[in-house]
Amino acid sequence: MTAPAEQRVRHRRKVTRRRAVIAGASALGITGAAIVTTTMLSTAGAASTWPTAKGSQAVTGTIKVSGTYDGGYKKFYGSGALGGDSQDEGQDPVFQLADGAVLKNVIIGTPAADGVHCLGSCTLQNVWWLDVGEDAATFKGKSASSVYTVYGGGAKNASDKVLQFNGAGKLVVSKFQVANSGKLVRSCGNCSTQYKRTVIINDVDVTAPMNSIVGINTNYGDTAALRKVRIHGDSAKKIKTCVRFKGNNTGAEPTQLGVGPDATSCRFTASDITYQ
């Protein structure tokens, strides 16, 4: 759904040990399918090299994934019906993941349409967005037990949201990097059906300009935990960490209630955020 006008950040579009992991994940409440070992993934870091595409593929109709889809670092971009380059709501995605599906080693180029849709629990492993379209990924599961895991990868140039959390359950974002975008994660502020949502952001790099890291709806019981978040290029500390909203199910603009940790909904301390 559309974010509040005053919250949007518009940018010029560009064409262009296992045990340690499990222990750290458990400390944040990440279990089961949400744990992916580091041997499978690249590390986060603003200075990390983004992958070089090994070929490219035009996508004229949504690729539907069940099971595991390994893109082999090929670049996929929208064409035909998916070839628009706008922020219009309701666009189709390049990839649609069934409940339990895994999408890995994929580069999404431009046009990117509406990126990736997860219809239930899913894992996005080393997925890279070069130029985010409407959103990079949207999570739409209806079960409170749904777990959406974004591990490795990164996104650039999102005019508004990168990860749009419309459904129910838990979203875990780790080893990820984001730059020149609006919001890293937004719990839907005005979806017609609302849920309690849990967001965990751990070991990520955020590079200015950005509007905010995460936005949640406290009136629906949302929570967000931030750990080991590194912010780059923001010496003035303008990037908002965790923004609390009063959401609704009427389509109206949500009301901003506050910013920063409050020990209840936005769960982190100053030491969890570093500026580099």
Structural key phrases:
276 residues; mainly beta; nine-stranded mixed sheet; six-stranded parallel β-barrel; 4% helix
Describe the structure.
- This protein is mainly β and 276 residues long.
- The chain has one helix and 21 strands.
- The strands form two sheets. A nine-stranded mixed sheet has the order 2-4-6-8-11-14-16-18-19, with no helix packed on it.
- A hairpin with an 8-residue loop joins strand 18 (240-246) and strand 19 (255-259).
- It is globular and about 45 Å long.
Set down the secondary structure blueprint.
Layout: H1 18-27, E1 56-59, E2 63-65, E3 68-78, E4 95-97, E5 101-108, E6 116-118, E7 122-129, E8 137-139, E9 147-151, E10 154-156, E11 161-165, E12 169-174, E13 177-179, E14 183-187, E15 197-207, E16 212-217, E17 223-232, E18 240-246, E19 255-259, E20 266-267, E21 273-275
Parallel strand pairs: 1-3, 2-4, 3-5, 4-6, 5-7, 6-8, 7-9, 7-10, 8-11, 9-12, 10-13, 11-14, 12-15, 13-15, 14-16, 15-17, 16-18, 17-20, 17-21
Antiparallel strand pairs: 18-19
Unreliable parts: 1-45
Helices and strands, in order, run as HEEEEEEEEEEEEEEEEEEEEE
* Morphology: globular
The biggest sheet amounts to: 9 strands, mixed
The Rg value, from CA coordinates, equals 17 Å
Between the first and last Cα atoms, what is the distance in angstroms?
A: 32 Å
Structural class: mainly beta
Number of E-state strands: 21
Mean pLDDT: 86
Total number of helices: 1
* Helical residue percent band: under 10%
Strand content: 35-45%
- Spatial arrangement of strands, main beta sheet: 2-4-6-8-11-14-16-18-19
